[in-house]
Amino acid sequence: EITSLLSLCGGQFSGEQEIRVNSPFWILSIPSEEMARGLMKRTVCAKSIFELWGHGRSTGELFASLKNYPMDKMLPYLQPNSTYKVHIHTFNKTLTQAQKIKKIDALEFLPFKGKVNLKNPEHIFWILEDYGMNPNNVPEDPFHLYFGRWIADGQRELIESYSVKKRHFIGNTSMDACLSFIMANHGRVKPNDVVYDPFVGTGGLLISSAHFGAYVCGTDIDYNTIHGLGKASRKNQKWRGPDENIRANLRQYGLEKYYLDALVADSSRPIWRKGMLFDAIITDPPYGIREATRKTGSQKETVKSVERSAENQIFVSSNYHLSDIFFDLLKFAAEYLVMGGRLVYWLPTYKPEYTEEIIPRHPCLKLISNCEQMLSSHTSRRLITMEKVKEFKDQDENSYLLDGQYMPYRGHNSFREKYFSGVTKRIAKEEKDNQK
């Protein structure tokens, strides 16, 4: 998410930057405070950003680092007519108030000339201490210490204010608010973009994009979901109400003006005119667990009738293999995304068989990121972000079929069986343990 947002703000994420996987603190090199604030206006992963004045592995190293920090960069925030406060935050450890005051008092060598104001200071300084990630083995002294000037907080409050629990219209697979915003950030959604979701469901992914000022639309094969009809997914509610629909969800958050429309359509069949229509495609395809994987097909096709008559055509849904879903999605993105536009989607995986090779590819799309979210001990799903880097030509339409690696992708089709095999084994084990 941070990488995508930096590129959206005009910055660049360097591979040389210090990223410790086992630490909640990152040191980033950002060209300007303005860019840092732009980053924090979007992120739901990062909590706060600071201008780093000093850091070290011990108190002595931290103080030495602070003494080496250029005085001309410090002084604007330490003037006699200013107010300030120092806040201390420890990760994985709780300090007493007396311990905190002792650590703050130890900073008296810094040339603070302003007045302390705990309620409404002009400048806030933070001491950050990292005691590792293991709550069962907390060290006496921190692994890393940081001191810096607070610049801005992230948007983590969006997770609560857009919570699915408070949403007007939900379904069985409505996307968690935090993940929806992360996906929009991976897609680098910005004001006046057009964002499309081919498996729109109850429109959870449209809401986060609309929040960032994009115009949103989607399609879904399920007529009842698009029109807000049928049985409700909410507990203690039998049927959906007359005003439960995607538009009502966007209206709930004051985002209705960004809603283009949602259509009943089959994502496996072309409905759009040719051309680059969308700035981002952000979606969560069905995996066949809570929602079926379906596409349309007529009864005539099913029985392979030789009659060509169009009379009494009754469309029914037929099975839509996961591998076909992903290839249709990539082909659609390659054709309909603008150059530099992004496709962001979830790919379910069976962990014992997972390799990088099973991620579907397309010659027009470049893989940007691949992030794992654990679902169970043996299954997970990966947030795949791809960017359009090459114009779509007719010869690219079925290019993946020429790829010798096409067969491994077929493994996605058995994800449902593998998912439930783990559940079945766990139930059997629990029953066996209970009998002992």
Automatic annotation (TrEMBL):
Q: Which gene encodes it?
A: Trmt11
The organism's lineage? Answer: Eukaryota, Metazoa, Chordata, Craniata, Vertebrata
The protein's role, per its UniProt record: Catalytic subunit of the TRMT11-TRM112 methyltransferase complex, that specifically mediates the S-adenosyl-L-methionine-dependent N(2)-methylation of guanosine nucleotide at position 10 (m2G10) in tRNAs. This is one of the major tRNA (guanine-N(2))-methyltransferases.
Compartmental location: Cytoplasm
Against InterPro entries, the record matches this protein to: DNA_methylase_N6_adenine_CS (IPR002052), RlmKL-like_Mtase (IPR000241), SAM-dependent_MTases_sf (IPR029063), TRMT11 (IPR016691), TRMT11_N (IPR059073)
Q: Which example biological process does GO assign this protein?
A: tRNA processing
Query: Could you give one GO CC term from the UniProt record?
Result: cytoplasm
Task: Please state what the protein is called.
Answer: tRNA (guanine(10)-N(2))-methyltransferase TRMT11
How this chain assembles, per its entry, is: Part of the heterodimeric TRMT11-TRM112 methyltransferase complex; this complex forms an active tRNA methyltransferase, where TRMT112 acts as an activator of the catalytic subunit TRMT11.
- Source organism per UniProt: Pitta sordida (Hooded pitta)
Family affiliation: Belongs to the class I-like SAM-binding methyltransferase superfamily. TRM11 methyltransferase family.
